[in-house]
């Protein structure tokens, strides 16, 4: 039985559930459901608070989980990041009223409000700064307005929450975070956990690449293939028309138009792009 920890709500929960569904695992019927059991697939999904996921997985109570890198590192739990999942991106940053500080080096003797005390204490130590950390559960931006802290350290996605509270980012990012797949650090993954990891890797690849097909004169095929090297090697097949071949290769989605422009200039024609529904590398 594979036991998977999933965020039950918040910024990561919908995308995590969608990614797992695309990998062929079950979902929950409503947002109040806390456990989903699938006896055919032999998996059980536990919907937990995002902050608690690294604790369960680190203890080995659950085999794998999806959480944020920031939450994993703040938990100090013996769980390891296996795969970055490409959603829920954010940075963890200091912010204060304009003019309060320019970097972490200016924080000596100040009060820093945060819900990620370990990340902040580690960063202050790295800068050799002694400051007091005010541990709050959330909505930390308000701590400055209410006079509980001089600055905050918090998750920033768009920066809207900071702006709305009259705060400005300062210093380097403490951490770049995104959703990650985690498993217990001190034991080898079961074969079912490895299958899950490969499936999620497949979902990621299918979303990051497109399939490109085109026809090209045989004498130009090397030049064209240098633009579309594929993941391993492009497939080159003969065409009925003498002296021409068809080429098929995976291309990074964000390069789609640039690669098509290059291929057209080299002499490729009938350049077609299709979505990859699923893949296993
Ligand atoms: N815009 C965002 N706001 C908050 N967290 C985000 C955002 N984008 C990504 N994340 C990530 O989501 C995770 C936090 O999730 P969430 O805010 O749902 O949990 P929480 O703060 O523990 O719960 P709650 O906010 O319900 O108290 C972190 O890993 C964080 O980096
Ligand atoms: O940069 P932004 O796009 O504004 O997003 C970041 C904000 O979102 C999160 O809050 P959340 O809704 O999780 O509440 P919380 O602070 O109580 O956890 C985070 O703690 C910031 O406050
Ligand atoms: Mg939150």
UniProtKB/TrEMBL annotation:
InterPro entries: ATP-PRT_HisG_long (IPR020621), ATP_PRibTrfase_cat (IPR013820), ATP_PRibTrfase_CS (IPR018198), ATP_PRibTrfase_HisG (IPR001348), HisG_C (IPR013115), N-reg_PII-like_a/b (IPR011322), N-reg_PII/ATP_PRibTrfase_C (IPR015867)
Gene3D superfamilies: 3.30.70.120, Periplasmic binding protein-like II (3.40.190.10)
Domain Histidine biosynthesis HisG C-terminal stretches: 206-277
Reactions listed under catalytic activity: 1-(5-phospho-beta-D-ribosyl)-ATP + diphosphate = 5-phospho-alpha-D-ribose 1-diphosphate + ATP
ATP phosphoribosyltransferase catalytic domain mapped to chain residues: 49-201
Annotated metabolic or biological route of this protein: Amino-acid biosynthesis; L-histidine biosynthesis; L-histidine from 5-phospho-alpha-D-ribose 1-diphosphate: step 1/9
One BP term from GO: L-histidine biosynthetic process
Regulation of protein activity: Feedback inhibited by histidine.
GO cellular component: cytoplasm
Location (main, coarse): cytoplasm
GO molecular function, one term: magnesium ion binding
Cofactor(s), names only, from the UniProt record: Mg(2+)
Compartment annotation: Cytoplasm
Entry EC number(s): 2.4.2.17
Keywords for the protein's UniProt record, in alphabetical order: Amino-acid biosynthesis, ATP-binding, Cytoplasm, Glycosyltransferase, Histidine biosynthesis, Magnesium, Metal-binding, Nucleotide-binding, Transferase
Known role: Catalyzes the condensation of ATP and 5-phosphoribose 1-diphosphate to form N'-(5'-phosphoribosyl)-ATP (PR-ATP). Has a crucial role in the pathway because the rate of histidine biosynthesis seems to be controlled primarily by regulation of HisG enzymatic activity.
Family per record: Belongs to the ATP phosphoribosyltransferase family. Long subfamily.
NCBIfam families: hisG (TIGR00070), HisG_C-term (TIGR03455)
Protein name as annotated: ATP phosphoribosyltransferase
